[in-house]
């Protein structure tokens, strides 16, 4: 029998949102014993929740009477901790092994354990989230389609820009990372997407720092990395996609790096199949890098190949060099090899794929051409 | 001497963002011993962090060498847990009492404790966050000024709308909650605000459920609750504000409720001073409700008076009936009494105030007129 799961969080938690499929702003308890699920809500939420969850997956339990009992408990302990204890007593959870997520509040865990509860941490908490349903895959495909509109816009701006000395000019003004990011954010906002993590548009030396968001004037004849990872405001799933451009003439190094990263991505695509170890797919992408004479590890290809994508920007499975994850049909992961050298700049190309019965289905479907003249 | 604080989270955690003042997407460790702060970052983040934090508050420590040691540790335990242990060993934290936030990952806490660490949970983790600096107050004032533009827009749409039978019409179409929310979201987006939690625009029966987001056609001659709690995309602080309107002719009950809620809010304003117990301020707001013949508790005024506002929508101090918080100069809190009856509808009015030396400073400064003809 599966262990009973208990979670306490608001629906900002991806696990919680996945379970209740609606947004609830304040933390609440859920008990999931496999066959039945109980959700404990206050009067502010209960009617709205019932309106949205018409499929009776959940037994909805008003939390106020339990809260009254919790308030009557003497001694130290937060309100949430005492409430948790009342719930554990009432629903016989003190004698069972309970699985909680790693973000289960530590003070609540401490209190429950002091009363005899046995809490085991499981990460990931909801394994099913790593294998997407057909419906989830359609949402992700839709989000990625919207995301590509951001790239079309970036290319349009870069194409229209004029090179003057060491700068780009657009509409008579010096073209900056901030300007392009603003334009993309506004444009994708109208498509229903929000930039919750801060997109990357970096050039020159900044492009060699993979997490540099990019700022100031955009440099011609250098690598320009554009990484857009917006979330759909309605369906809450992310998109994630990267292209690298050069406006003007690339250096020979950047040309080679771009070619190599493209080959590395193709090698990863070819290595993906159900049952494959994620780290072997990473290794395939790394081999293409090394074969071209570039580095893997402390310099060059310094990050992992990719990560699961869904309600969180980074979720299971992980496709890094040390991952023990085994790919399964329905996994949705980013495939994003990159090369970074302070002296030459950075190149990254990122698509999102689904692991299918017979290999890869690419949800991104967008060209990888990098030269913009 | 203050206990050493340790945190492990991404900058999505408000505490973490408050400490590092920049956005870092993946979880990282911080040690704060009061006099000195250490931040442990990977190569992807380190340069970008140094560029932004030029004031040397932090010693920046590359995490990769520690990660290598962590990987060499045998036995069960997540990567983060083993890394935490390596850091605790290296920086002599195993022999000290350490304070962690309640969202410190439970698996990491369990692992550290199994190695002898003493971890105490403190909530709130950073008490200073509850008393805002002059700079933070200016950000919040600015955000609220932007938020009021949303209300101006709502009023403009409602004024322009025509009543026909039981519906409102605007630009020839039936006016819906969704339409107004979309317009407000787009308009405030251009002001730099994002709707991370989902604004409320509810009318008729929906207005009687305080957390109902509102959907479908907007009902004339009923209470229309508009609650806008957007976050500024750059400064990361929230705004939060509510007004209740009636388009057309209010019922006598709604008229009384609106008058009463306004008086309740005024009573709360008058009761606020440094040193006051937050629950006594709640009680002042509740007395005004009871004096007018309405209910407090299970029906009527069913929620708390308000909450601290800052990097989180709900933070310390709490102004509910059971709060033990004592108001201090610099607290920024919402003052939002409300009345809710399924048969009559709901009314809520919400401003944001700062607790000053001599009482309240209202950061909202917006009219409370509710009739729109």
Report on this structure.
The structure is a homodimer of 373-residue chains. With 373 residues, the first copy, chain A, is an alpha+beta fold. Chain A has two domains: 4-125, 3-Layer(aba) Sandwich (Creatine Amidinohydrolase, Chain A, domain 1), CATH 3.40.350; 131-372, Creatine Amidinohydrolase. Helices cover 32% and strands 24% of the residues of chain A. The first copy, chain A, is built from nine helices and 22 strands. Chain A has helices spanning 14-20, 43-52, 64-71, 79-90, 106-114, 134-160, 177-190, 252-271, 278-291, and strands at 4-9, 28-32, 37-41, 58-62, 97-100, 118-121, 162-164, 167-170, 173-174, 193-194, 200-203, 223-228, 231-232, 241-247, 307-308, 315-318, 332-335, 338-341, 345-348, 351-356, 359-362, 371-372. In chain A, strands 4-3-2-1-5-6 form a six-stranded mixed beta sheet. Chain A has a four-stranded mixed beta sheet with strand order 11-12-14-22, with helices on one face. In chain A, helix 5 (106-114) links the parallel strand 5 and strand 6 (118-121). In chain A, helix 3 packs across helix 4, helix 4 (79-90) packs across helix 5 and helix 6 packs across helix 7 (177-190). The radius of gyration of chain A is 24 Å and the shape is elongated. The mean pLDDT of chain A is 95. Chains A and B meet through helix 2, helix 5 and helix 7 of A and helix 2, helix 5 and helix 7 of B.
């Amino acid at each position: 029998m599966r262990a009973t799961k208990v979670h306490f969080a608001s629906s900002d938690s991806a696990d919680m949102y996945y379970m209740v499929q609606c947004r609830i702003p304040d933390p609440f308890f859920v008990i999931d014993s496999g066959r039945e699920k109980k959700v404990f809500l206050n009067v502010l939420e209960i009617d709205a929740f019932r309106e949205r969850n018409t499929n009776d997956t959940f037994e909805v339990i008003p939390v106020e009477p339990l809260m009254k009992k919790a308030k009557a408990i003497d001694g130290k302990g937060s309100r949430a901790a005492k409430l948790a204890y009342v719930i554990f007593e009432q629903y016989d959870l003190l004698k069972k092994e309970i699985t909680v997520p790693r973000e289960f509040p530590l003070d609540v865990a401490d209190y429950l354990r002091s009363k005899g509860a046995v809490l085991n941490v499981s990460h990931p908490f909801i394994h099913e989230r790593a294998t997407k349903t057909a419906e989830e895959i359609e949402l992700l495909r839709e989000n990625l389609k919207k995301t590509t509109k951001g790239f079309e816009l970036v290319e349009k701006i870069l194409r229209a820009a004029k090179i003057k000395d060491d700068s780009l000019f657009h509409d008579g003004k010096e073209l900056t990372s901030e300007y392009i990011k603003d334009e993309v954010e506004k444009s994708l906002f109208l498509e229903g997407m929000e930039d919750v993590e801060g997109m990357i548009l970096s050039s020159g030396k900044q492009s060699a720092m993979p997490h540099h968001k990019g700022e100031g004037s955009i440099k011609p004849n250098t690598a320009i990395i554009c990484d857009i990872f917006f979330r759909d405001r309605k369906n809450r799933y992310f998109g994630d996609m990267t292209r690298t451009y050069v406006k003007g003439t690339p250096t020979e190094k950047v040309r080679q790096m771009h070619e190599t990263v493209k080959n590395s991505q193709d090698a990863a695509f070819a290595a993906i199949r159900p049952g494959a170890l994620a780290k072997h797919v990473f290794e395939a992408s790394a081999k293409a890098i090394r074969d071209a004479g570039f580095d893997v590890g402390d310099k060059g290809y310094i990050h992992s190949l990719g990560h699961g994508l869904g309600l969180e920007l980074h979720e299971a499975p992980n496709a890094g060099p040390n991952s023990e994850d085994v790919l399964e049909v329905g996994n949705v992961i980013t495939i994003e090899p990159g090369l970074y050298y302070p002296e030459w700049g950075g190149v990254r190309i990122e698509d999102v794929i689904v692991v299918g019965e017979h290999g890869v289905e690419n949800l991104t479907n967008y060209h990888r051409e990098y030269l913009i003249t």
